[in-house]
Structure formats: C-alpha cells, structure tokens
C-alpha cells in the first residue's frame, strides 16, 4: 500500500466536513493524548499546543523543524 515501511506502525485520522473544524480537531488531539497517556505513553510537550501551532503555520508539523536527531 501507500504507507510503505510505515504500514501497520502508524495511525491516520482523517476529518472531513463539520469534523474538520479546528475545535473538533483539538478535541480529537486532546482525547488521543489522554488515551496514549492512559496506556503509558509519555508525550513530549503539549500535543494541544503543537496542534494549535500547526494550525497557525508554526512548529515542526508544517515547517519541517525538529523531530529528528541533531548532528
């Protein structure tokens, strides 16, 4: 499929129509972060703040900054 080596190791959450509104996306991010925390995942930083930054055109999601090992 289109996921290549990532197949079976990633999740994709798609939101269309009414569910594409920013507040609905933020609700999803908040719920996903709480669920991951419940199962023992320690997320770096605040996922909701990262979501808001991505919506504003800032942060690694849209600028390509961060997220990798530094050399």
Description:
This protein is 42% helix and 0% strand. With 71 residues, the chain is mainly alpha-helical. The chain has helices spanning 22-38, 47-55, 60-63. Helix 1 (22-38) runs antiparallel to helix 2.
List the SSEs and their pairings.
Elements: H1 22-38, H2 47-55, H3 60-63
Helix pairs in contact: 1-2
Summarize the structure.
The chain contains 3 helices and no strands. The chain is an all-alpha fold and 71 residues long.
Q: What's the count of strands?
A: 0
Query: What shape does the CA trace take?
Result: globular
Strand content: under 5%
Mean pLDDT: 81
Q: Kindly name the structural category.
A: mainly alpha
Order of helices and strands: HHH
> Helical segment tally?
3
Report the span from N to C terminus.
32 Å
Poorly predicted regions = 62-71
Main beta sheet, described? none
Helix content: 40-55%
Rg calculated over all Cα atoms: 14 Å
Tag the structure with descriptive keywords.
3 helices; mainly alpha; 71 residues
């Amino acid at each position: 499929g289109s996921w290549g080596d990532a197949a079976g190791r990633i999740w994709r959450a798609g939101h269309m129509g009414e569910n594409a509104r920013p507040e609905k996306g933020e609700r999803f991010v908040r719920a996903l972060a709480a669920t991951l925390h419940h199962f023992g995942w320690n997320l770096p930083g605040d996922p909701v703040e990262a979501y808001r930054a991505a919506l504003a055109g800032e942060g690694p999601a849209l600028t390509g900054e961060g997220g990798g090992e530094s050399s």
